[in-house]
UniProtKB/TrEMBL annotation:
Keywords: Disulfide bond, Hydrolase, Metal-binding, Metalloprotease, Protease, Secreted, Signal, Zinc. It catalyses: Hydrolyzes proteins with a preference for Tyr or Phe in the P1' position. Has no action on amino-acid p-nitroanilides. This is Extracellular small neutral protease. Its EC number is 3.4.24.77. It is found in: Secreted. It comes from Streptomyces iranensis. Its cofactor is Zn(2+). GO terms for molecular function: hydrolase activity. The keyword Hydrolase applies. SUPFAM superfamilies: Metalloproteases ('zincins'), catalytic domain (SSF55486). Belongs to the peptidase M7 family.
Amino acid sequence: MRSSKFVRALPAAVTAVLALTAGQAVAAPASAAPAEHTAAARTVTYDASGAAEFKDAVAKGAAVWNESVVNVQLKPVASGQRANVRIIADNGWPRTLSTGLGSGTIYFGREAVDEGYNTVRISSHELGHILGLPDMKPGPCSSLMSGSTAGVSCTNPNPNAAEKAEVEDSFGLVGAGATAAATPRMYRD
Ligand SMILES: [Zn+2]
């Protein structure tokens, strides 16, 4: 039952990709994914062109997630394509507008950086919101989603086991490319 549902979901996902890329060169479909990821890995693209001095922290935060989970992978968007996620540096507090699982806008706020918070932890924390995780505050440094409540001295950019499992579950359930309807939500940290 579960596997037949998953198989039926794939053509819809492919159709969505084709619709999004209509009029442009269509990227290679899931068959280009590494064999060990078989059918389930979904690619979420990000555009860090507005991330100013935080571009490197964004890439490192994405790498953290790519090493932590298999059901979703974060990749820089190809030139001329629309990204699922935009990262924009600004002078406010870091925050993320989620517009659905795997999509939204991250505001990489300098306010927290100026206070001394670690930029890679900020990056992977905000990407965690993009991947469907809520804030889990207050919490220890071992929790990525405890965010600023772990203190300025906390530089851990890695999700803990529960945080990884939640992301794996979310993306495993929707399958490759399928996005559940979602109400936009702002995470103000
Ligand atoms: Zn947060």
